[in-house]
Amino acid sequence: MTGSPSTAAEGTASRPAPLLSVASAASRPVPGEDVEAAHAKARRRRSLLDDLTAVQFMLPLLAVYIVIVLIPFLQSVVFSLTDYDGYDFANAGFVGLANYRTIFSDPTLLAGLGFTLLYTVATTALVTVIALPLAVTLNRKFFGRNFARSLFFFFSVPSMAVLGLVWQYIFSPLQTGAVNTLLSRFGIEPVPWLSDPNLARLCVIVIAVWAQVGWHATLYLAYLQAIPADLYEQAAVDGAGRGQQFVHITLPQMVPAMGVSIFMLLTGGLKVYDLPYTLTNGGPGAATTTVTQSIIVTGIGSGRYGVGSALGVVFFLCCVILVVAQQIVTTQIERRLS
């Protein structure tokens, strides 16, 4: 006797589904996962296109850098190992490290390296110590604030070469110098500002600091104006004085600006040439001679391209060490304050 249709349907419904069908259903992607995977793929494609675009924009600059910086540096390394005189490299002989030994045995070249490092460290420290408080002062409201900002920035506008010529007249060791003329009216003997080695070094450093403070104060001022005023208001409500606000609010916020400023001061100080040359011509003796001037005089003036190139290579390594050390210190300070 055949069962009823309802009984057959119930038996079919109660029969378990094959395992293959269950596995296929489980492995079938969910529509939402398809959309997310498509979005992720599109994001990766956009990121790749952005990277390729950035590389395309960087390639011309990289090519210029290779031609102007990298290739000449490699040539200097090769020249430093030879007795090349600047005329016929084919006849230049290989001398090994003899040029480097000459550098560290020549008192004039060592004096140039020493003064350059002294100038760099002194100007960087003094400009930073003076420019930051000056920027804080110029950021406050007082009568004539805009005029004061323009005045301090104006000193940074003329080139160092022009400033060197002007200050050479002012600090002239003769009685015709402006400062000595003023001192003579008070019965004071002329001071050898530019003919005494120590005074000449001091004059170069002081003039450089005076010329750069305004620019770096303007840089700090731009960062100061970006600090939210709510931070100072909240600190004042909590009872913090100006000194505490400077230490706990201003100084941490100014670390990036200090990093930029110190980097520019270091690189500018290491390659300085125009101010000492126009002010003292590197004298008296070699008291204010810089590495750049030594390279020009030794390599081009004396025809000792090998020694000049060796000095350039040594100086380049000193620059790399100083700049890398500055970047590491700045990064560590930012991490501790963040």
UniProtKB/TrEMBL annotation:
| Bilayer-spanning residue ranges | 52-74, 117-138, 150-170, 199-223, 254-273, 307-329
Listed under GO cellular component are: plasma membrane
Parts forming coiled coils = none
Which BP terms does GO give this entry? transmembrane transport
Question: Principal localization?
Answer: membrane
Keyword field: Cell membrane, Membrane, Transmembrane, Transmembrane helix, Transport
Write down the InterPro entries for this protein, in alphabetical order: ABC_transporter_permease, MetI-like, MetI-like_sf
Compartment(s) of residence? Cell membrane
- What superkingdom does the record give? Bacteria
Domain ABC transmembrane type-1 per the UniProt entry, residue ranges = 113-326
| CDD domains, sorted | TM_PBP2
Membrane topology according to the record: Multi-pass membrane protein
Gene3D superfamilies recorded: MetI-like
Q: Which family does the entry's similarity section mention?
A: Belongs to the binding-protein-dependent transport system permease family.
Q: What protein name applies here?
A: Sugar ABC transporter permease
State the organism of origin. Answer: Bifidobacterium samirii
